[in-house]
Amino acid sequence: MKALILVGGFGTRLRPLTLSVPKPLVDFANKPMILHQIEALKAVGVTEVVLAINYQPEVKFSGPLWSTGTGTRYGTRYGTFSLFGKKHLFLQVMLNFLKEFETKLGIKITCSQETDPLGTAGPLALARDKLIDDSGEPFFVLNSDVISEYPFKEIIEFHKSHGGEASIMVTKVDEPSKYGVVVTEESTGQVEKFVEKPKIFVGNKINAGIYLLDPSVLDRIQLRPTSIEKEVFPKIAAEKKLYAMVLPGFWMDIGQPRDYITGLRLYLDSLRKKSSSKLAVGAHIVGNVLVDETSKIGEACLIGPDVAIGPGCVVESGVRLSRCTIMRGVRVKKHACISSSIIGWHSTVGQWARVENMTILGEDVHVCDEIYSNGGVVLPHKEIKSSILKPEIVM
Ligand code: GDD
Ligand code: MG
Questions:
Q1: SS (HEC) of 213-237
Q2: With contact defined as beta carbons under 8 Å apart, do 236 and 242 qualify?
Q3: Average pLDDT over residues 253-259
Q4: pTM of the predicted model as reported, rounded to 2 decimal places
Q5: Residue 357: DSSP 8-state
Q6: What is the top-level taxon of the source organism (predicted)?
Q7: What is the pLDDT of residues 310-341, one digit of tens each?
Q8: DSSP codes of every residue in 282-346
Q9: Res. 86 pLDDT band, cuts 50 70 90
Q10: How many angstroms separate the CA atoms of 4 and 222, rounded?
């Protein structure tokens, strides 16, 4: 089976992290977001993943393409870039990443690059030859920024059972207006209506961004900017050939910081139920905490709940961490306290510093001792010498 992952846009809502790596490569629970999807696809027998990319070639980045890191671990060799620096391409960063994981995971990963953004359906037409083979099997399409237990087996079964042309996964949310809302016939799952970002209340079941499509769907899509949500799904629904199943387990679009932090909580809850041995244990751990085995935690720390600590981190003694992500190579100095925040790669947080309320530190940011950050969003390579008292962007 084949799969296509939609990897468009600049990920502006996840800045400053996306100033250092393309959004799909931003770490989530200690590995690049997109790797969660690729691993789950591999597990159900997908042999080739096509990444549909629309990064603009003129975007430049600086820093080592093959950064030094902790040896051969993932994530240490796909390099970094910044919008201000040397001439290297986002695409190059993605390609380096792909090369590494093709071999590691034993799955073919290719890129299909648009010169102009083709929306959420156009990229399928562009990658048509990669998606179709003699088997006539359906293929997966995923939005790159959704995290879940990826119940791909279940959607394959569902697709076989209804005989329609396309299957989509749906989930219930409290605020449906920022998503695609799906109204189904309760007993069969047949989609009666698909309304993208409705202005008035249509229902609370939304498109989860996970599809299984018959090759015939490609005959409906032309090679031009097209929205699958606005132009393709409503037509298939009108012909009664679109079916939706409710996604079992948790779901989150982690394309913005607040949802990213909530997503980590849901992910760790699910990990607790499925393979709790991956979670940290000890007197200093509260709730669900993921710690890479190469990281060092000092004496008398209190860590959790809902914390991910990536590879090569040093957390010194007496540190308090809750509801936060500490990315690869970070040092948190003595008695610092971090909550509801994301600390980007290779940053340091000084002694007695207090970092909270959706503070997002970009790559290689240095927060001096005793600083307070209340929701600071800090661009890469900055030094923070005075406190950030209210949420603001530090350039
Ligand atoms: N290759 C390519 N080219 N990819 C694109 C383009 C493009 O021009 N535009 C968007 N994408 C990718 C994004 O990277 C993302 O993976 C996916 O398509 C969806 O785009 P978003 O910008 O994240 O859309 P959204 O979050 O507002 O809404 C979508 O996701 C919701 C679930 O999170 C829709 O599919 C909604 O219906 C859905 O409910
Ligand atoms: Mg999204």
A1: ECHHHHHHCCCCCECHHHHHHHHHH
A2: yes
A3: 91
A4: 0.89
A5: S
A6: Eukaryota
A7: 999 999 999 999 999 999 999 999 999 999 99
A8: STTB-S-EEE-TT-EE-TT-EE-SSEEE-TT-EE-TT-EEEEEEE-TT-EE-TT-EEEEEEE-TT
A9: very low
A10: 17
- From ligand 1's centre to the CA of 120, what distance in Å? 6
Q: Please, which pLDDT band fits residue 124 given cuts at 50, 70 and 90?
A: very high
Residue 222 and residue 232: Cα distance in Å, rounded?
Answer: 10
ipTM above 0.90, yes or no: yes
* 180 phi/psi in degrees, rounded to 5: -90, 120
With a 6 Å cutoff on the Cβ, whether 144 touches ligand 1 is yes
How many other C-beta atoms are found inside a 10 Å radius of the C-beta of residue 59?
A: 15
> Distance between CA atoms of 70 and 75, rounded to whole angstroms?
9
State in Å: Cα 355 to ligand 1 middle: 31
Partners of 207 in the β-ladder: 170
3-state secondary structure 141-157: EEECCEEECCCHHHHHH
The pLDDT assigned to 333 comes to 98
Q: Is 306 in the pocket of ligand 1 (CB under 6 A)?
A: no
Find tokens 């909550």 and name the residue.
339
Atom of ligand 1 nearest to the CA of 255: 23
Position 122 scores a pLDDT of 97
pLDDT at 131 over 90: yes
317-341 burial, b at 16+ Cβ within 10 Å, e below that, comes to: ebbbbbbbbbbbbbbbbbbbbbbbb
Residue whose CA lies nearest to ligand 1 atom number 17: 143
52 lines ligand 1 (CB under 6 A): yes
Phi-psi region of 358 (alpha: psi -120 to 50; beta: other; left: phi over 0): left
On average, the pLDDT of the chain sits at 89
Determine if ligand 1 sits within 6 Å of the CB of residue 55. no
> d(Cα 83, Cα 88) in Å, to the nearest integer?
10
Is the predicted pLDDT of residue 209 greater than 70, yes or no?
Answer: yes
Ligand nearest to C-alpha 194: 1
Per-residue tokens: 157: 């079964």
Say yes or no: CB of residue 38 within 6 Å of ligand 1.
no
Say what the pLDDT of residue 18 is: 85
Q: What does the alpha-carbon distance between residue 386 and residue 353 come to, in Å, rounded to a whole number?
A: 11
Give CA separation, 304 vs 85, 147, 148, 159, in Å: 37, 21, 21, 40
Distance CA 234, CA 352 (A): 55
Q: Which ligand is nearest to the CA of 180?
A: 1
CA-wise closest residue to 1 among 244, 169, 214, 161: 214
